[in-house]
Design goal:
Elements (H helix, E strand, L loop, with lengths): L3 E5 L4 H9 L4 E5 L10 H9 L6 E6 L4 H11 L3 E4 L5 H5 L5 E6 L5 H9 L5 E5 L25 E3 L8 H8 L3 E4 L4 E3 L2 E2 L1 H15 L3
Parallel strand pairs: 1-2, 1-8, 2-3, 3-4, 4-5, 5-6, 6-7, 7-8
Antiparallel strand pairs: 9-10
Bound molecules: the ligand O=C(O)c1ccccc1N[C@@H]1O[C@H](COP(=O)(O)O)[C@@H](O)[C@H]1O.
Keywords: Amino-acid biosynthesis, Aromatic amino acid biosynthesis, Isomerase, Tryptophan biosynthesis
Pathway: Amino-acid biosynthesis; L-tryptophan biosynthesis; L-tryptophan from chorismate: step 3/5
Catalytic activity: N-(5-phospho-beta-D-ribosyl)anthranilate = 1-(2-carboxyphenylamino)-1-deoxy-D-ribulose 5-phosphate
Length: 209
């Protein structure tokens, strides 16, 4: 099966259009407080308009109040929610959309191993390199050989870039790869050449080259 690609933390319509032209499967928009990639609900419509049909739109949250999640959903119309904080299963499923829950791999595989019971409603799990209790999205990679068996598709994230995504795929064989800082020239500003190289290296690993 082809490995899916998600680009996250986009803030500019032109970057969204290029991601779609490169064949990326999903684009993510950050609503987490204090993120340098955070977009406001007022910006969401313009970014949403740049996404062509058949590309997933992901809204990312980290311990945002439910009212903020509702506002973001109304503005962006995402197809998938991504929760990066201490949200529980009931909160995550309460918005009536499929969701992916991030698990912290920076302290070992314990958090991920417990996820089977804690998030029965999750459509997928995203494994990031931060430590449990710490915010994700820090560009931190983890030991890709430590992923425990999980009952849902795995999105591999955390410090990926064109230089290491091939090795990550060969070791972890994830359902999808997710990248943000590894395709940027500055936080929230994507770099076209890095985006293209990331897609090419993912496809190369997909073909077992
Ligand atoms: O991108 C952010 O600013 C962010 C803020 C808070 C939580 C998560 C965030 N980003 C997500 O983290 C993973 C890994 O990102 P990276 O490739 O290591 O930079 C990814 O899903 C980002 O979208």
């Amino acid at each position: 099966m082809r490995i899916r690609i998600k680009f996250c933390g986009l803030t500019r319509p032109g970057d969204v259009r290029l991601a779609a032209e490169l064949g990326v499967d999903a684009v993510g928009f950050v609503f987490a407080a204090r993120s340098p990639r955070r977009i406001e609900a007022a910006d969401a419509a313009g970014l949403r308009a740049a996404v062509p049909p058949l590309v997933d739109v992901v809204a990312l949250f980290m311990d945002n109040p439910g009212s903020e999640v509702d506002t973001a959903i109304r503005a962006l119309r995402p197809t998938l929610l991504q929760f990066h904080g201490r949200e529980d299963d009931a909160f995550c499923r309460g918005f009536g959309l499929p969701f992916v829950k991030t698990l912290a791999m920076g302290g070992g595989a314990d958090d991920a191993a417990m996820a089977r019971k804690r998030y029965p409603s999750a459509s997928a799990f995203l494994l990031d390199g931060h430590r449990p209790g710490e915010p994700g999205g820090a560009g931190a990679r983890f030991d890709w050989s430590t992923i425990p068996p999980l009952p849902r598709p795995v999105f591999l994230a955390g410090g990926l870039n064109a230089g290491n995504v091939g090795e990550a795929i060969r070791i972890a064989r994830p359902y999808a790869v997710d990248v943000s800082s590894g395709i940027e020239s500055a936080p929230g500003i994507k770099d076209g050449a890095k985006m293209q190289q990331f897609v090419e290296e993912t496809r190369r690993a997909d073909r077992n080259e």
